[in-house]
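Module 6 notes. Inverse folding takes a fixed backbone as the condition and produces residue identities as the prediction. Think of it as a translation problem where the source language is geometry and the target language is the twenty amino acids. Below is one complete input and output pair. Work through it position by position during the lab.
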């Protein structure tokens, strides 16, 4: 059996529920879970590396607040709670640029607890999985995240950004050439880049998706809901590609789409 996790990043209080419904109704109808990396209190001035507003703020609609907690969008929170197919992951706190790389180490503990509480305030279950904005950590903040969460999902882990006490396990992972590893009770998972992206050639992407699933026991497919609506209107070609990918996952007998939390207390092999 091959296992696939769908991770969609950047759900926040300005996300229209209908966008997620449009994207993932085919998955929900098939009983395929979708894992949403959710920003607990989104900064409405969050910027990307070019200094432009982040694409996930496309629908903030002139809100004057500096930040919005998830509970501020009751329609979205109600929609997500009513559909068991969604699993909520904690995605930073505000999603500031390189937030968990730049955040002072003595502030990480409080930031993590505040983010969790904000998600609980919105009516969600205690998140078990953490996703850092832009997949970036400092070593001290990564250590704090691993203390707080059972699963960390990231694109990669760099030796220079790991706590020194983790180096032996990291070296063993590199020797074995395995994508996923573990520190204590915390799983450290990687993904093969954002293969479901509007900035990629779709024909190449589907080949890469199939190749990763063929050669790995566990594959994490990352996408971003706002890329499908980046001009404020649906990108029908890209949405079609997502739905074709979901159809492929549903039709392959040896592939099972799971939640991150399914990896906890189970015998699902990750390597």
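Target side of the pair, the amino acids:
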């Amino acid at each position: 059996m091959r296992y696939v996790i769908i991770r969609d990043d950047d759900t926040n209080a300005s996300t229209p529920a209908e966008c997620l419904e449009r994207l993932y109704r085919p998955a929900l109808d098939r009983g395929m879970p979708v894992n949403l990396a959710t920003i607990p209190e989104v900064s409405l001035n969050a910027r990307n590396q070019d200094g432009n507003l982040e694409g996930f703020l496309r629908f903030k609609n002139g809100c004057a607040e500096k930040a919005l907690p998830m509970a501020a969008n009751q329609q979205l929170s109600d929609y997500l709670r009513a559909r068991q197919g969604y699993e909520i992951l904690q995605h930073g706190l505000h999603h500031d640029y390189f937030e968990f790389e730049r955040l002072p180490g003595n502030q990480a503990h409080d930031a993590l607890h505040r983010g969790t509480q904000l998600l609980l305030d919105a009516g969600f279950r205690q998140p078990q999985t953490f996703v850092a904005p832009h997949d970036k950590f400092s070593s001290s903040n990564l250590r704090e995240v691993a203390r707080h969460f059972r699963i960390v999902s990231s694109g990669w882990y760099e030796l220079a950004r790991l706590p020194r006490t983790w180096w032996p396990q990291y070296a063993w992972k590199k020797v074995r050439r395995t994508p996923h590893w573990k520190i204590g009770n915390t799983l450290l998972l990687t993904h093969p880049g954002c293969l479901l992206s509007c900035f990629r050639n779709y024909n190449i992407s589907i080949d890469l998706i199939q190749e990763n699933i063929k050669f790995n026991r566990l594959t994490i497919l990352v996408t971003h809901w706002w890329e499908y609506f980046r001009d404020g209107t649906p990108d029908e070609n890209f949405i079609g590609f997502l739905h074709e990918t979901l159809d492929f996952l549903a039709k392959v007998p040896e592939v099972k789409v799971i939640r991150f939390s399914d990896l906890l207390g189970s015998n699902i092999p990750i390597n």
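Reference fact for the lab report: The chain has one domain: 2-263.
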